[in-house]
Write a structure and sequence with these properties.
The complex is a heterodimer. By secondary structure, chain A is an alpha/beta fold. Chain A is 42% helix and 23% strand. The longest helix of chain A is centred in the first third of the chain and has 26 residues. Chain A is flat and about 90 Å long. Helix content of chain B is 10%, strand content 50%. Classes of the chains: A alpha/beta, B mainly beta.
């Protein structure tokens, strides 16, 4: 084998990778019955070209192996069909080729026997030598990509930012001259176009499509399914979604774990599926999308879901349970599942990037694991506002509308505005951020921000308009503070702090209103209280804090309600009630296996230690003292139990 | 053995950091405050087209800073750049390698130079101190 320079080795490896990936993709399509008409030709072309390139760079080992595979394919060319039983061996042959490319120092191994002797007799007619159209486009098809260290690209991006700033300052300084001198005006306009294109191009280097890490996944899923005796296929949605390169790199491993889990614990065997009335063929979906300042990558399967017991603690409880190290939903550990340790590692990795894991499931229907990551870098469309001389930005995705508020009335101590026929509290941005500021004017603009099913109306001094900005995370100093997504440089050289709408509309921070009827319900609380007035008071406090509230007049009604769908997430109960009192209710709930983890808050009379003791003994998780109803205390207690 | 250090004035005290760690020395043009930040974060400051966190040596060291300071040193940390506010950057000098023990654990040691005590800072420990409040997020 002749020596080749590093440069050529890399180029060759890249080309081989591209061609072999394509070959594998076509073979997977053939297996699924979706083969293109010219599938044999496509594969033949790639193998043939690979053979040629390998010889050219002195990799005779690869060339010989490719030649063997080429012979098999030649035999298939006249019939233009790849028989299904040949797909497995052909996939293994492609693997062998890849191994060979990647390991130049291995002793030359002969091509796998399966490749040399195809299981199907080659068609005799025309096998002698159909005119082989020499697709020697290998020189033209050579991949033209190179590897560059990531921080060199960051440097380029910042340089582009400086150029843009410089351009803006030039425009200001030459404003007067430009208005009377066409030459200057034209050059400035040209300069701006060039500099903006430069920034877009520099940003493009840091962003890659999701597909750049997903190439090997369809094959991996197929192989894992086959190994586990299951029939499953991977569907990828959002392959074109552009994500920051660093985020992509952080995701590759977690996604692999999730796919492994979906096959091992999600998709059932074909017989089990048929018995359940499902198609024998299972589907795993990998989806990526950018939502404002967050990237969502999810793996869904239409398999068995998670057993109902694991759902008692609500969605957050499910995440906690499934991500405990060592947890496994299978009785025995299979070679594929790796005992559920995968999910724990996924969560750690995602949280290390500042993200969160969400899991939703339907027993018998399937499971979705969603990874939500903050954008490491990227462009974000924001709405800029000014409050007390400082500029802040909200992701435009989260802005519902902008309103002008004029001397709003107060309700319950909060200035309130009417939003589509319903009252919503008006919040001063400075209050939400806890910074000192001059009072707002009587007439102020307000931004209606929506996140996670809740809406907040945020007042500021001035609206500055929408802008596309480059997000700089500035971790941990800025992003480590809850509420900030990062900061962005503005064209005047200043900066805007970017606010996280999720944090802003959290119930603890400011009172908010539920977004609309159709919004997904977060937490459902059952208020058990025989006094109508107190019941309604508690209802309004909790509804304002973002809960979906149901009520019951006594313990018996409550017990009936918690045993039915939709699921109650937390119970707030008085003690003294007819039919079944709070203590009895708590005991009954705890005695029911399906409800044993349901959080219960008892509301006791002031000074009644006996009630409190009995309540806690009966299994309540917390208590609230009734008199002088402190709404903060009620909401805080619920928050701590529901674990936000 | 002697090595080059950048001398800083923070309040009435003299400190130094290894010159090799300092990427640049800048004037603080603008500080954008960050509500609810740690006391050691003065805000974010634009340095050319980038936004850098501006940390306060004085707050981390527990010394008084005079209000007049408008200079900052930029160091490389955690894969990115971080700026530290100082009252003045006085000189780049060669400090003797052997240091006396200093009181603060943020200081590698104390050198005697130009007739005064110069605290040689450990940037690594300073940064640890600055980021420790964020470690549970």
């Amino acid at each position: 084998m002749t020596e080749i320079g590093d440069e050529f080795a890399t180029i060759f490896a890249d080309e081989a990778d591209e061609r072999l990936t394509r070959v594998v993709k076509v073979l997977l399509d053939v297996e699924r019955g979706r083969s293109p008409e010219d599938c044999v030709e496509v594969i033949f072309r790639d193998v043939h070209a690979l053979k040629g390139t390998a010889s050219m760079v002195g990799r005779d080992d690869v060339s010989r192996l490719a030649h063997g595979l080429e012979d098999v394919l030649s035999g298939l060319r006249p019939a233009r069909v790849i028989p299904p039983e040949l797909v497995g061996p052909l996939l293994r042959a492609a693997d062998a080729l890849r191994q060979c490319v990647e390991n130049p120092d291995l002793d030359e191994a002969p091509p796998p026997a399966e490749v040399r002797e195809p299981t199907r007799p080659a068609a005799t007619g025309g096998a002698a030598g159909p005119a082989v159209a020499h697709e020697s486009g290998s020189a033209d098809e050579r991949p033209n990509s190179i590897r560059v260290p990531a921080d060199k690209l960051s440097g380029l991006l910042h340089l582009a930012g400086e150029a843009l700033l410089n351009q803006t300052q030039l425009e200001h300084l030459l404003d007067a001259q430009a208005s009377t001198n066409d030459g200057i005006a034209d050059q400035l306009a040209l300069g701006r176009r060039i500099v903006e294109d430069f920034k877009t191009a520099a940003l493009g280097f840091r962003m890659l499509p999701f597909s750049s890490i997903t190439a090997s996944f369809p094959r991996a899923v197929r192989d894992m399914a086959v190994a586990a005796g299951k029939d499953a296929e991977l569907v990828i949605t959002g392959a074109d979604t552009e994500l920051d390169r660093l985020t992509l790199e952080a995701l590759a491993e977690p996604i692999t774990h999730l796919l492994r889990n979906a096959i091992a614990h999600g998709i059932e065997s074909p017989e089990t599926r048929r018995r359940a009335g499902k198609p024998a063929h299972g589907v795993v979906e990998l989806r990526a999308e950018q939502r404002g300042a967050t990237v969502s990558v999810s793996v869904s399967d239409d398999g068995v879901g998670v057993p109902a017991q694991a759902l008692i603690g609500g969605e957050q409880g499910l995440v906690e349970t499934l991500t405990q190290p060592g947890f496994s939903t299978a009785e025995s550990v299979s070679a594929v599942s790796g005992r559920g340790v995968g999910l724990s590692a996924v969560r750690k990795r995602v949280e290390a990037c500042g993200g969160t894991v969400r899991i939703s499931t339907r027993p018998g229907g399937g499971t979705t694991v969603e990874l939500l990551l903050p954008l490491a870098l990227g462009l974000l469309e924001v709405l800029l506002v000014e409050r007390s001389g400082q500029v802040y930005g909200f992701p435009l995705d989260s802005v519902v509308e902008v309103v002008l508020v004029d001397a709003p009335p107060t309700v319950g101590g909060y200035p309130t505005v009417e939003l589509r026929g319903r009252p919503a509290p008006l919040v001063d941005l400075a209050d939400a951020l806890e910074c000192a500021a001059d009072p707002l004017a009587a007439k102020t603009p307000a931004v209606v921000v929506r996140a996670d099913g809740r809406v907040g109306v945020i007042a500021c001094d001035r609206l500055l308009g929408g802008q596309e900005v480059v997000v700089e995370r500035i971790a941990p100093f800025v992003t480590g503070i809850p509420g900030y997504l990062g900061a962005a440089v503005l064209s005047d050289g200043g900066a805007a702090l970017l606010i996280d709408p999720d944090w802003l509309t959290r119930p603890r921070v400011i009172p908010t209103a539920p977004a609309d009827e159709g919004a997904p319900v977060l937490r459902r609380v059952l208020v058990v209280e025989d006094s109508f007035t107190i019941r309604e008071l508690q209802r309004s406090i909790l509804a304002a804090a973002g809960y979906e509230v149901e009520t019951a007049k006594d313990g018996r009604e409550a017990l009936d309600r918690v045993s039915t769908e939709p699921k109650i997430d937390i119970v707030v109960t008085d003690v003294d009630m007819p039919h079944l009192d709070g203590i009895g209710l708590a005991k009954a709930i705890r005695a029911t296996p399906a409800l044993s983890a349901l959080p219960i808050v008892i509301v006791t009379a002031l000074g009644d230690d006996e009630q409190r003791r009995r309540g806690l003994e009966a299994g309540a998780d917390a208590y609230i003292v009734k008199s002088g109803f402190d709404q903060r205390a009620l909401v805080d207690t619920l928050e701590s139990l529901v674990g936000r | 053995m002697d090595s080059a250090h950048v001398c800083l004035r923070i309040g009435r005290e003299a400190y130094a950091v290894p010159a090799a760690a300092v990427i640049e020395i800048v004037d603080i043009v603008r500080v954008i405050p960050v509500p609810r930040a740690q006391p050691s974060l003065l805000g974010i400051t634009p340095v050319r087209a980038r936004l850098l966190p501006l940390l306060d040596f004085a707050s981390l060291l527990g010394v008084q800073r005079s209000d007049s300071g408008a200079r900052a040193i930029v160091v490389k940390a955690m894969g990115t750049l971080v700026a530290f506010a100082v009252d003045a950057v006085t000189d780049v000098v060669s400090l003797p390698g052997r240091l006396q023990k200093g009181e603060s654990d943020l200081v590698e040691g104390v050198a005697i130079f130009g007739g005064e005590f110069v605290g040689v800072l450990s940037l690594e420990r300073v940064l640890d101190r600055a980021t420790e409040a964020y470690s549970d997020d």
